[in-house]
Write a structure and sequence with these properties.
elongated, about 20% helix
């Protein structure tokens, strides 16, 4: 155990050390160590049409479903949406008239470890406009779209 901690602790600050063995891995991000089951990464090309019903995501990422917005009348959920994972370079406008933010920066500010970032589902409309990053962030257009539906995305990671 001492050797494990020495290797993780002695890695340069800008590195993401990971020690693996069958059935487990230990990673470091910032000042924290994470002991996990080996992660499965979703195929970056995976994309799925989504009508708002429960959608089981690949690579044991969890389930995405629409849930009613509190206090808003809900219309039947039959949106024409698409779900996929990060491909890199995504930006989003969180507030109307605001500037576009790099998703990478939002992940860093939220302290989401890099190995988890490619496992976060993203919701797009029929015109391929990004509406939401799971249930973490919603764009200004996404908020309007989900308010009209009376539902919003909810991500259950099991």
């Amino acid at each position: 155990a001492g050797e494990l901690f020495r290797q993780l602790a002695s890695a340069a600050v800008d590195k993401l050390p990971c020690l693996r063995w069958p059935g487990a891995e230990v990673r470091r991000y910032r000042t924290l160590m994470y002991a996990l089951k080996p992660l499965q990464l979703p195929d970056p090309g995976w994309e799925h049409a989504w009508d708002g019903g429960p959608l089981e995501l690949p690579a044991a990422v969890g389930t995405l479903a629409m849930i009613p917005n509190p206090g808003h009348p809900a219309s039947p959920v039959t949106p024409s949406l698409r779900v996929r994972f990060r491909r890199g370079g995504e930006t989003l406008r969180l507030n109307a008239g605001g500037y576009r933010r790099d998703l990478r920066d939002l992940f860093q500010e939220a302290g989401i470890p890099p190995w988890q970032r490619s496992r976060v589902p993203m919701v797009f409309d029929a015109n391929d406009e990004l509406l939401a990053i799971a249930d973490l962030w919603t764009t200004d257009r996404g908020r309007a779209h989900f308010a009209m539906l009376g539902h919003r995305p909810a991500w259950n990671t099991h």
